[in-house]
Design goal:
Oligomer: single chain
Shape: globular
Length: 298
């Protein structure tokens, strides 16, 4: 468990001296010239922001440095699932004990899926992206990988994640897990993750899931009755704190620290970006807010 360091507030003071003539020439209280926006300082070790409509880079900080990504990995998990041919979002998946055991063994974030329950693929996507359920990630990898054993299916699914990364030009990315709990070989960069999120957001289902603040799944128990699960709450606090936020995914871990892939739309303009290795849950949101404000001002 990481102890978060509360983000330091940066106060900015600017002293401007102008002559009367300069004020008259510029026009009193005239607007600042276009593009004269102060580049923000963020606590995160890496960051990248782009205009999603034009793919224009707006901000970089160690944007191509490879780092552990934590659960932002699950963006790719969802993308691979949603790219499956003839995907039936209402297909049911039976929750296995292996998924529950995995959560316990790794002290992993969980959607608290119940062994034996039948859960739809759609519900698993919400369980994956809102509470960042590693049990939901395991269930999806097991369902959509190929092979006669669970280990083979998981390996196959991770292979699909890496093939997709290559197809998107994510040249500095590698996955060795379906959820971000890697085995030393699960990494990406702010630029690559932003590229991934931009592609994933082309899916209407993905967009719907990642902008949802809370979701209550009704699953089918072993006996055929309906179980109303406790509501899943989205770990992305920007959905409540930043007007126009439309996604995307948080991540954290001992190595990854605090990560956030974010996107917001204002006045028809969508800004999308990533911060990796920020210093706390609060600070990653602060970092993202600064970068979104900067992006919209550019």
């Amino acid at each position: 468990m990481i102890t978060g360091i509360k983000g330091t507030r940066f106060r900015r003071a600017a002293a401007v001296t102008v002559t009367t003539g300069a004020v008259l020439a510029a026009g009193a209280f005239g607007a600042a010239p276009a593009g004269a926006v102060t580049t923000p300082t963020i606590a995160a070790a890496g960051g990248y922001v782009m205009n999603n409509g034009t793919a224009k880079t707006l901000y970089t900080k160690a944007a191509d440095t490879q780092r552990s990504t934590g659960s932002t990995t699950k963006i790719m998990t969802a993308k691979v699932v949603l790219a499956q041919p003839n995907l039936n979002l209402d297909a049911k998946v039976t929750i296995q004990k292996a998924y529950s055991d995995y959560i316990v063994a790794n002290t992993a974030s969980s959607a608290h899926l119940i062994v034996g329950d039948k859960v739809t693929v759609r519900q698993l996507l919400y369980g994956l992206m809102l509470p960042s359920g590693c049990d939901a990630a395991y269930a999806l990898a097991d369902k959509f990988g190929s092979g006669s054993t669970r280990a083979a299916r998981v390996k196959s699914f991770i292979g699909k994640m890496n093939t997709t990364a290559k197809s998107l030009g994510m040249t500095k990315t590698k996955f060795d897990s379906f959820d971000g709990i890697g085995n030393g070989n699960n990494y990406s960069t702010p630029r690559d993750l932003t590229k991934l999120a931009s592609s994933a957001m082309k899916s209407a289902t993905f967009r719907t899931v990642v902008k949802t603040k809370s979701y209550t799944a009704k699953t089918v128990t072993k006996t055929g009755s309906t179980r109303t699960m406790a509501a899943w709450t989205n770990t992305n606090t920007l959905l409540s704190s930043y007007s126009g936020t439309i996604g995307v995914k948080t991540g954290s871990g001992p190595e990854a620290k605090y990560c956030l892939v974010f996107a917001a739309t204002r006045n028809g303009k969508t800004i999308i970006g990533t911060v990796l290795a920020s210093t706390s849950i609060t600070q990653r949101a602060t970092d993202a807010t600064k970068l979104l404000n900067y992006g919209f001002a550019k």
